[in-house]
Amino acid sequence: MFALLVSAALAAPIVHGERLEWAVSWMGIDAGSAWSTTSESGPAWIFEAGARSAGWLVSLYPIDDLLRSEWTAGLGSARYFTRFREGRFQQDQDNRFGADAVVVSRTQLRDEVWQPSESRYAAAPGVEDPVSAFYRIREEAGPVGERTRWTVWTGKNAIPMIVHTAAAEAYAGQAALRVEVLADHDTDDVEPKLTVWLTDDAARVPLAAVLHTRAGAVKATLVERTVGG
Known about the structure:
Blueprint: E1 18-26, E2 29-41, E3 44-53, E4 64-72, E5 76-86, E6 89-97, E7 101-110, E8 113-122, H1 130-140, E9 147-153, E10 158-171, E11 174-183, E12 192-199, E13 206-213, E14 216-227
Antiparallel strand pairs: 1-2, 1-14, 2-3, 3-4, 4-5, 5-6, 6-7, 7-8, 9-10, 10-11, 11-12, 12-13, 13-14
C-alpha cells in the first residue's frame, strides 16, 4: 500500500513529538505527500502516519490513507489500525495482537455497502506492524554487514523478514547508512522489499525510503523533520 512507506527509530531513542514530512514519487513522477508522528502513552508509543495523492492524481486515483500503531519496546505491536482510501479500494481494519490470537476486524466498501467481517489468526508474539517496523529499523540498523530477523504483520500473516545494514554511503550530501529489508529466504540472492537511508549518526534520521513493488519503485524523500510538543 502507498501509505506503508510512511509507514522507520531507537539507535536513537524514539523522540516524543517527532514529525516527519515526505514527498512521494512513483517511477520518478510526483505522486503525493506523506507524514508520520510519534507520541508517548504510558509505557507505549503511538505512531501515526498518513498519505495523500498529488492534486493532479486525485481525479485518476485519489489516495487519503491513515495508519495508527500502538507499540511497546521489547513487546512489539499491540494494535494497528489502518484506514485505506485508495481509488475504489476503501477499507478500515483494526488489528489487535493478543496473547492467544490476532483478531482482525475489517469493514470494506463493496457495491456501495460497507460490509463488516472479523477474522482470528494464530498469535504472533513480538510481531511488528508495518509502521512500528519502520521505527524499529532506526533502532537496530548498523553496523555495516549486520543482519537482524523479525516478523512483520501483513494483515493476514506474520512474515519473517531480514533487516540488513548493507553499506555506509553518502545520500544527498550526508553520511548515511543504506538499510535493506528483505524476505527471509535461505539464500542471499533476494531482492529488497524496502530500502531506507538513515543518517549515520545518533539520530538515525530517515532521509529517504524506496518501496519496491511490481508496479515500480515508490520513493519517499524527507522534506522536513520537526521535534516538539
